[in-house]
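Subject: Interface between my chains keeps coming out wrong

I've been trying for a while to get a sensible model of this assembly. When I model each chain on its own everything looks fine, but I need the whole thing in one frame so I can look at the contacts. Pasting all components below, labels as-is. Any help appreciated, I'm running out of ideas.
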Amino acid sequence: MTKEMTSTTLTRPHFGTFTIERKYRHSPTRVFGAFEDTEAHYRWFVSGEGWEIDNWKRDFRDGGRDYGEFRPSGHPSTFANETWHLEITKNQRIVDAYTMMMDGKPMSHSLAVIELFPDGAGGCRLVYTEQGAYYGDEQDVKNRKAGCEELFGKLDEELRKHA
Amino acid sequence: MTTDTQTRMLHDTIVMERTYNASPARVFAAWESVEARLRWSVPFPEAGAAYDQAEFKVGGLDIMRCGHKDDMRYLAHVRYLEILPDRRIVMAERVAECGEIRAASLITIEFEPAGKATKQTVTMQVSAFDGSDMLDGYSTGWTAALDNLAKEFE
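Reply #2:
Try treating it as a single job with all components included. I did that and got this:
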C-alpha cells in the first residue's frame, strides 16, 4: 500500500453539520430562478475569478447530475464537484448530495438542503443546511461553511445585478 | 438533535457501531450482495422489501420498495457516492412514502479489522421532512437490520 493511499483514500471521515441563513430582498421565485436558470447559476455558483472551469454539465431535475472540474490558475490539482439532485420542489426546496474531489479522489461527501421561505414584503429567507463527511482536517467544516457563505454572497450580487 | 422550528425539517446524526464475527471482506460482501441485503435489511418478520433496480458501483442507483409485506409504501432511491472494497461505502438516500418525500440522508459505512472480527460503524446524517418520525424510523429500522446482519456470520 502506498503512502499516498494511506493519507488520502483510507483516512476516516469526520462528520459535521452547519447551517447558514440569509435574507434576500428578492422573492423565493426569483431566488429559486437563480438556481434553476443554467446561465444565472453558472455566473454565481460555478464561475469564479482565478478558476479555470472544465467539463461543466448540468441536469437540474429530480435524479439529475451536475458535474464540473475546476482548477485554480497555476495550481497543479484538478478539483471536481459532482452533485446529485435528490429532490427539487419549485420555489421552495432543493435537496442535493454532492461530492468534492481532488484529482479524482473524494475530499468530502455532503447532504445539502436549501429551503426558501417568503420573508417580509416580497423578500426571501434562505436556510442552507449541510451534513457532511469530510476527509481533511478539523478545519474542514469551518472552511466549508466559509466557502458556502461566500457563495451565498455571490448569489446576492447575482440577484442585484440581473433583475 | 437540531430542531429549528422555523424550518420544516429536522436534521440529526445517528451513529451505530457493531462488531461482527467475520472479516471485513465478508461484511462488505453482505452489503454488496442484493440477495444478502434482502435477508438482513428487512427489519421485522412482517416487513418486506423488493429491488426494482440495483447498481452497486460508484454513481450507481438502487431503487427499492419496502414497508409492510402487504403495503410496501416506501420507495428508496440510493445513490452510491464512494465504494472502497472492504473499507467503506458512502451513499445518499431519499425515501418517499406514497410519492411524498419523507427523508434524505447521507450514510457512511466503515469497516475496520478488529482481530479476526470487523468493527462496523454506520453514520447516518438524516434530514427528515415535515416531522420527526422518520428519525425514529431510521433508528428502529437500522437497529433491527444491523442486528440481523450479525446472523449472516453465525
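Reply #3:
Confirming on my end. The first strand of chain B starts at residue 2 and ends at 3.
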